[in-house]
Amino acid sequence: MIEQEISKYLKSGKYLPIEGCGGRSYRHVLGWTNHTAGQGLLYSHRVTDFKRDQFDEAYHAHSFYELIVYLRGDVDFICNQSILKPPQMSVIWSCPGEYHNARLLGESCYERYVFRFEPDVFLYEGQDYATLGFTSAGGGFFEVGALHQSKLERMLSEIDACFEGTRKNRLLARALFIRLMDFLDRIADLPREASKRLPQNVLDLKLYVEEHYQSISSVREVAARFFYSREHVSRLFQQYFNMSVAEYLTRYRIARSVELLEAGKSVTETCYAVGFGSMSAFSSSFRRVKGCLPSHWTRRGD
After folding, report:
1. How far apart, in Å, are the Cα atoms of 36 and each of 163, 166, 178, 289?
2. 18, 77, 272, 301: least surrounded by Cβ within 10 Å?
3. Calpha distance 16→25 (Å, rounded)
4. Phi, psi of 75 (to 5 degrees)
């Protein structure tokens, strides 16, 4: 849930609430502002000058959609098992549960519009009016053709204008977002340009971790399975997923633990089922990744 994500970032200090906005707009520590536009919709226009040591977007998944209108910056995107290298003025998206991250290829100004929204954001009077046909094959991208670029820029500027000044017109921003999604669905140029797959050795390492996450005891064990050094395995994960092998394993275990908790398993049973060696390690890792203790997870909507 987006509200849970906001709560996690507020607790970690990455989000700072903006005074006078009723707790619905947040300044990120890297400079951009996130705005809610009603329940289940979070919007930001991000312009960031990044250096390599500042860019730490780790391989991750959400329970909601993420859609990016990419304007500029020396970046590519990894989604599931593919590497996407879209041209400027492209639309990139990931669906709920799909793992993804951006990679900074060189120091540059990275500008993008980011929309995060729940699957039910298009519900109205019990009917689903979602215009997400272009997402039916999972995460990917399409380039916005020259004929449609000026209209897209105008629509994005209109959404930006809803959050200027002290009075935020969140209702209008939500309506403009729905209109934008309908527009994108109509202009989506599919089938889209073929993307590259991740290198096979990286896929093999990733799959091994995901298949043996319950029993893996160390990074050295993963490296030995493929006759690599521990340092080489760590460099590969850092290169493609912006995180260490150990962090990837932890986050994967936490993702599986959420599934077990939501299926009704106890915290203790879940802890050992996903491979943690102690309750304290499980609780501290869960809180760091999810922003709350595992015992609070299933009560978060109460």
Report:
1. 10, 15, 14, 22
2. 301
3. 9
4. -135, 160
